[in-house]
TrEMBL record:
One of its GO terms (biological process) is proteolysis involved in protein catabolic process. The keyword ATP-binding does not apply. This is M48 family peptidase. GO terms for molecular function: metal ion binding; metalloendopeptidase activity. Keywords: Hydrolase, Metal-binding, Metalloprotease, Protease, Zinc. Residues 25-223 form the Peptidase M48 domain. The lineage of its organism: Bacteria, Pseudomonadati, Pseudomonadota, Alphaproteobacteria, Hyphomicrobiales. It comes from the Bacteria. Transmembrane segments: none annotated. It holds the Pfam family Peptidase_M48. InterPro entries: Mito/Outer_Membr_Metalloprot, Peptidase_M48, TPR-like_helical_dom_sf.
């Protein structure tokens, strides 16, 4: 499968995100990277320090945590143009460049301090009232505690809303610097406003962390329309890549009926065929999907992701040798050096099963993990390759890595202990197994 559902390892991400349904896909990751790279450069943020992570959710949303930008698949599907997604990324990059996360943590600490102090003052007033026998003063004490907490919370939310507006303004600046239109941001806010139209009168503006869409439109419209790039459209090639990504996500996540619905309404005939081909191989016949993907390859033979999908189709058709050929072509054409494509190639070679293929699989999977060292699926295939070659220690170490990067630390330690017994003490593999065995499991509280 090209799109791999995973959970974020708690070793690298906050516990609150550990259960997010993460999706890995070389084509879509490359598309988002191409969207974000000019913006990161404009913001003065180094690209190699930022990860863009896909979340398998139909909601239109994106957020920043640490040095990661999380983007829901629903954001790509909902956005009709690349510019809409680019606007979202510009906003999130503004949070990174502005250090908003660090300042937000400071504000949270401050709010908690205020709430704690007022709670203590309220308790002290209640105790004093109890000793004096004046019940009304005791009531005032509890009111002081509750009022202080509410004031702290409102102050924090006010701060968050101001940071959101600041990020919007910075995003327009980044878009101008990269010669792109801010129109997509307005389109997004107008969509949010339509969605909130029926309930906006029941929303307390002081109890939300983001400004209401109408406020953001009001704050941005004049600034955006002054941009010399406001009426600029996305390049046709980029629009086609965007539509093909939408078709892929819909086929994988919503099934053949949704893929057909998108195919009938999209203006891109190639995206329509792409979605239909993926849906056909996932839910129908790989033999019927092959000529469809071959037709797309004939029109764009240098597109690595079409060859990648062909490899996936051949795997489902149980033709491991043909799958390996397709993945080899995809890896050769891939300018982004995706570890995911190398991992798929390694998987196909493992399925071929002969010793020469298994030895090649080890090499391809080691290359994959040098490019993408936290991919548990690649470690699983590497363990299979080593196991079939009779290298038990390396297979157990790869299994330990798979469990470690999947967040199964107890199992990882068990396999690491087994692997250590098969390696020379203080050798590189022994040391890696020792690192896993000694790893301090994150607190689950």
């Amino acid at each position: 499968m090209t799109m791999i559902a995973l959970s974020i390892s708690a070793a690298t991400t906050a516990r609150a995100q550990a259960s997010l349904p993460i999706v890995r896909d070389a084509e879509i990751e490359r598309l988002l990277s191409d969207y974000a790279t000019p913006l990161l450069r404009a913001a003065g943020v180094k690209r190699d320090r930022i990860d863009i992570v896909l979340v398998n959710s139909p909601a239109f949303n994106a957020f920043v945590s640490g040095r990661k930008i999380f983007v829901n698949t629903g954001t790509i599907v909902t956005a009709e143009t690349p510019n809409e997604v680019i606007g979202v990324l510009a906003h999130e990059i503004a949070h990174l460049a502005g250090g908003h996360q660090d300042r937000l943590r400071q504000q949270i600490d401050r709010a908690q301090t205020i709430a704690a102090v007022t709670a203590v003052l309220g308790a002290s007033a209640a105790v004093a009232a109890g000793m004096s026998g004046k019940g009304s003063v005791a009531g005032a004490g509890s009111g002081l505690a509750l009022g202080g907490a509410e004031a702290a919370r409102r102050g924090l939310l006010t701060y968050q809303r101001s940071e959101e507006l600041a990020a919007d303004r910075a995003a327009v600046d980044y878009l101008d610097k990269t010669g792109q239109s801010p129109k997509g941001m307005l389109v997004t806010f107008e969509r949010f406003q339509r969605d909130l139209a029926l309930i906006s009168d029941r929303i307390n503006p002081y109890r939300i962390s983001h400004p209401l869409p109408r406020e953001r439109i009001s704050a941005l419209e004049t600034l955006a329309r002054k941009s010399p790039n406001f009426s600029k459209s996305d390049p046709a090639g980029l629009q086609q890549r965007h539509d093909m990504a939408r078709a892929k996500i819909i086929a994988y996540t919503s099934g053949p009926a949704a893929a057909e619905g998108f195919a009938q309404k999209t203006a891109s005939s190639r995206a329509a065929l792409y979605g239909r081909a993926i849906a056909k191989f996932l839910y129908g016949s790989p033999q019927q999907a092959l000529p469809m993907i071959d037709k797309l390859i004939a029109g764009d033979p240098s597109n690595p992701y079409l060859h990648e999908i062909k490899g996936e189709i051949q795997l489902k058709a149980r033709n491991a040798a043909a799958a390996a050929d397709a993945f080899t072509q995809a890896a050769r054409l891939d300018k982004g050096d995706s570890g995911l494509i190398q991992s798929a190639l390694g998987h196909a070679l493992v399925l071929q099963g002969d010793r020469q293929s298994l030895q090649r699989a080890v090499g391809e999977l080691e290359v994959s993990l040098s490019l993408d060292p936290v991919n548990p699926v690649a470690y699983r295939n590497l363990a299979m390759a080593y196991g079939r070659l009779g290298d038990t220690g390396s297979a157990e170490l790869a299994t330990a890595e798979e469990n470690f990067h999947s967040g199964r630390y107890k199992d990882a330690k068990v396999f690491a202990a087994r692997a250590k017994r098969k390696f020379e003490p203080n050798s590189p593999r022994w040391l890696r197994a020792d690192d896993i065995q000694r790893f301090k499991t994150p607190d689950k509280r």
